[in-house]
């Protein structure tokens, strides 16, 4: 019909001519790559085709301009500082060592630590071998330096830094022989140099790290340490007494505890003769009783000093601690046993303004547990009254300070007031409450040049105290497992520096 479009299916002329059914637009377009014509088998053996037919090997090695070898040191160093325990332990001095500001030996020691740590954690055998070889070279250089004349001992005060770093290397290698060598080296350098050699930063922070390290070793061996001498507590800060951190003041108390343990062991051995192991009164009973009284007096002096520190800390930093009520989500299982504890006080999660304040409270409670445990062991009947008396004297002396406000104006909430606890479980639980905040703020460690020489030590003591309570043990494990750096700490049994051997039933449950 004229003027009406042809609605028939379009057909191509080729299909009409060949007699095929034309599919028109319904047929899908097929694309074929035909740039290479098929080659006959007889022509494949011609020399000009041999190179075309043979496969070409593919190399995945990046070109030299894209190699990461130039960034190896930076990557290893960044990985090392990712360990917040090391970062807080080595505040200032570890940074200076990485920059080569403390001598070549310190720089080489840091290189060994960073390479070995990165290689072990990422299973890079080449870096492990490099780190181990560098560690061996540093040991040889250190041995030569330690054999030098005593006249140059003061100039060798910087040796403390590489020794501390090499001790960290021996720790990740579980090299006990090397660790003992490094401990002896630290002690030798400190005694040769004297306390005046560490009055300037960053060596002053290195001294604090060395002091904490020797303290742990002395608690293990239960032997008196030379660092309890007052000159080692005051002279390093003589140029700037106000720069002394709260951690250092608590270490002044803790370094005296190995001497107490040594004296306690001496008193316990007074009634026995080592030749025939038979009970023989080698000393008169009144002499033994007098030694025990003197030991208790020393503990009381330290306990009152710790309580005074706590009052001063609350006056200066108490406003930086608060608590928040934990609100459990409905239909959500608790993440840790902490969320299922029924005690209202323990359900209040702590909050700190800075990580250093949390470290202070944990270290305070660890010192408190040592002193309370020894008192309960020596004088179980008088310990409660002794604690009350020390707390009362500490509060009175703190109130007499011209800078102190009235006692009624100082609130210790949400923490415990000095003298309010008679069981060592209370300071142990306070350590766990503090670490509950700490484990969620590991990134703040080492910030603002805040040093924490004993980061996990208080929690290890708390674990020993709460060893018989599985729900608290699980709470501690859950907090530690939040970070691969702290995961598994103290989980395989044993006691931190043998602390559990001093714990008695009265110390745990004084009201029973």
Automatic annotation (TrEMBL):
Domain of life, per lineage: Eukaryota
Protein name: Zn(2)-C6 fungal-type domain-containing protein
Native organism: Daldinia eschscholtzii
Lineage, highest ranks first: Eukaryota, Fungi, Dikarya, Ascomycota, Pezizomycotina
